Amino acid sequence: MGGARHLFELDKDELDTKLSQARQELFNLRFQLATGRLDNVSRIRQVRKEIARILTVIRQNELSHLSEGQEV
After folding, report:
1. Does residue 31 sit within a domain?
2. Inside any domain, residue 21
3. What's the CA gap between 54 and 4, in Å, rounded?
4. Which of 10, 24, 42, 63 could form a disulfide with 14 if both were Cys (CB 3.0 to 4.6 A apart)?
5. Three-state SS for 59?
6. How far apart are CA 34 and CA 66, in angstroms?
7. What is the pTM of this model?
8. Distance (Å, rounded) from C-alpha 38 to C-alpha 17?
9. What is the pLDDT of residues 11-70, one digit of tens each?
């Protein structure tokens, strides 16, 4: 992925959907790791970083709306 740049173009609902999907994928990866079926262990780190990026963008959007005097 190319960082968080593409995430800034998404609205709140799309970000929430991406976050939910990433968290579900992380759960599945951890389950596969625990059962010994995970081939690409580095994918866990990638998904965790993606979750962090999404959460960062959501928080930045919240802060920008607050500074503009809008409700979140």
Report:
1. yes
2. yes
3. 7
4. 10
5. helix
6. 42
7. 0.87
8. 24
9. 999 999 999 999 999 999 999 999 999 999 999 999 999 999 999 999 999 999 888 876
> Count of domains in the chain?
1
Cβ-count burial of 4 within 10 angstroms (0-12 exposed, 13-18 middle, 19+ buried)? middle
CATH number of the domain bearing residue 53: 1.10.287.310
| CA gap 18, 11 in Å, rounded | 11
Q: Is residue 72 part of a domain?
A: no
d(CA 57, CA 33): 29
Find all residues with CB under 8 Å of 38, minimum gap 6, and list them: 29, 32, 44
Q: Rounded CA gap, 65 and 43, in Å? A: 33
The answer to the question of residue 22 being in a domain is yes
